[in-house]
Fold this protein.
Amino acid sequence: MEPNDTTSPSSIRAYTPDTPPPPRAGWILNRSPSVYGTYGIEYLQRAAVAAKVLGCNQLADAYYPILASNVRGGGTHTLRFARGELPPAGAFWSLTLYDSNGHPVPNGIDRAAISSWMDLSYESDGALQIVLAPSEPKNKGERNNWLPTPADREWNLVMRLYVPSEGALQQGGWVPPLLRQKKRFFFF
């Protein structure tokens, strides 16, 4: 094969079709149809997606905001959706935690994701706060909304919106909330 042959396995795995837009609120929000299962005659794009993942839904069926950078393990983080700001999905949404290599992270409660179909606890103002931490929260409501994270390695999040609303798909539209790290306070 020629060194610049785009059909070699290494060329296919290295292929990146579009430069994703700059992150917003810490999330990569790539809304390009070429990334989402509609390839037309873009055979290299189709091959690159097949080499990296099993396949990809069309943008009208599923939308995947991805946390822009890995998070160092060990701390407690929160993701707070204000009332009326839940992921705009016509079917359901999920938030899945992966290690820095893209693999699910085993944990004691066998929970890799938080999803809209779960029995989640909402705050008195209607907001939903998801807790991402290596140890179980003491508060029952926080336990319902807890996604265990590894204490000793980096992790990342992928959000999935199934049957996303038009507002989610428009440039400048819906953006997931900022992932916030809870600060530790020490008293002497």
